[in-house]
Design goal:
The chain is mainly α and 205 residues long. The protein contains 10 helices and no strands. α9 packs antiparallel against α10.
């Protein structure tokens, strides 16, 4: 039934992804759902409350996916020990799962598009975009690779450079997926990239 908390959140995110966060009002969201602003305010205090709920859900999903694929949930500074037992298979599984999530899941896709639209209008959105989709994943991967080098899983190299080399194709393919009907083909390209990367950089290779 239209007007539930979930309906409001998903409708707002879809509108934010289409027109941008700043351009969408509470009246617009309510009108799209066919409810009054008063009915909407029973679930959320204001538009910012909806946005904060969207971001909170994204971080919760990301933590769940990290657990599922046995990679660290938090940054290295917060949980350094969780970076000690990550395998190359864990990294591959997590990367493929993230690609599918960002390109096939409606919530994730709209979240990414919203941030892409707003990153040039808002410093807060720009930071969130970088943390979730650009520099954040690179820094996360850098920390994982540095610990792998210490344990002799990866060949010695500059971990930051290696992280950029690993992540850049994924970032490109995610963006290509927005205009492609062959997401499975793009996923296969990413899988091939990861396998070549592991073959070339594994200390056992």
């Amino acid at each position: 039934m239209a007007g539930t908390k979930e309906d409001i959140l998903m409708t707002a995110l879809r509108l934010f992804a289409k027109d941008g966060y700043e351009a969408v009002s509470v009246s617009t969201i309510a009108g799209e759902l066919g409810i009054t602003k008063g009915a909407l305010y029973k679930h959320y205090k204001n538009k910012r409350d909806i946005f904060d709920s969207i971001v909170e859900r994204m971080y919760r999903i990301d933590a769940e996916k990290s657990r599922e694929n046995k990679v660290p949930e938090a940054k290295y500074e917060a949980e350094p020990k969780s970076y000690e037992d990550v395998s190359l298979d864990n990294v591959k599984d997590f990367t493929m799962a993230q690609f599918a999530f960002w390109t096939e899941d409606g919530f994730a896709s709209d979240f990414r598009k919203m941030l892409a639209l707003e990153q040039y209008r808002s410093a807060e959105m720009a930071k969130l975009y970088a943390d979730c989709i650009v520099s954040g994943p690179v820094e996360y991967t850098e920390d994982i690779f540095r610990e792998m080098m210490k344990k002799g899983i990866l060949k010695k190299a500059d971990p930051k450079q290696l992280a950029v080399e690993f992540y850049a194709p994924m970032y490109l393919l995610i963006n290509m997926a927005d205009r492609s009907d062959d997401k499975a083909g793009l996923a296969e390209m990413l899988n091939s990239h990861i396998e070549r990367f592991i073959c070339h950089n594994s200390a056992a290779g």
